[in-house]
Amino acid sequence: MTDDLAVLGLTPAEQAAYRALIAHQPVPAGEVLTALVDKGLATPVDGGHEAVAPDIALEVLILDRERQLREAREHISSLMVAYRKHVTAPRPTLLEYVGDAAAVRQRIVQVQQAARLEVRRLIRTPQVPLEVHVECRTIYETAALQPDPCGEVRVVPTLPVELYLVDDRMALIMLGEDRAAILQPCGLLDAYQELFERLWERALPAVPDEEAEARLLTSLLLSGLSDGQIARELGVSPRTAQRKLAGLMQELGAQTRFQAGAQAALRDL
C-alpha cells in the first residue's frame, strides 16, 4: 500500500487501519486506533469503532494542513527580516552572494522549486534539466542544449549571462562556475526580466520550423548586419549563412535588401 495520505500526517499503519475500518473490518485497540480517533478519522460505536466518512474526516485534515501552510508562508517575511539583518547589518540587502560550488548548486535547485507561477532560465553550460512544477521557459546556448529539456525551449548561439528568474520575486545570476548572486525585487531585477523577454523574442525554437527561421533571417537581413555578423548570430559558418540568405532572397523574389524588406512586409514576416 502506498503512503498516499502521508501528506496529511497519517502513518502507513494509520492509513491501513483507516482503510480497514472503511471496509468494516475490525481494528485492534492500541496506539494506531487511538490516533485515528484523535485525528477524527474514527469514532466509538457500540463498543467498537467505525470510520468517519472520508469526505468529512479527510477534508478537515486538508483544511488544517492548508491553514498551517498559510501561517508558515506569513512567517517567511519575519524570518527574511531577521536573515537580512544578520547577513548584512546594519541594513537589508537586495543582493545575496553565494561563493561555494556546492552551495550554488543547492541554491539553483531551491530557487526553482520555490517558484509559484513561472521559471525563466538562460542556460550557458550543459546540465541535467531540473523538472519544475510551474510554467517553464528556457533559452539555451546551442552547445548547452541537453536531451529532453522540460518546458518551452528556445536556443541562441550565445548568451550574455546564465540566469534563473523565479516569478517576479527573485533572480539567481551565475558569476562563475562556483559563484552566484541572488537578487531581490529592484530595478536591476526588472532589467534582467526585460533582457530575458528580448532574448526570447529573438531565439529560435529548439527544433525551428521554416517560418520561425524565415522570420529570424528576415530580421537579421534588415538589421544592417554584415553576412559575417549574421553568421555569428545564427551560430553557423559564413558560407552557410550566405546560402540561407540567398535562399530567402530567392523565395522573396528580391535582388536587394530593400526589396526583401518590402516583400517581407507584404508577407507579414
UniProtKB/TrEMBL annotation:
Residue stretches making up the HTH luxR-type domain: 214-264
Domain of life per record: Bacteria
InterPro entries: Sig_transdc_resp-reg_C-effctor, TrmB-like, Tscrpt_reg_LuxR_C, WH-like_DNA-bd_sf
Record Gene3D superfamilies: Winged helix-like DNA-binding domain superfamily/Winged helix DNA-binding domain
Protein name: LuxR family transcriptional regulator
Organism encoding this protein: Kribbella ginsengisoli
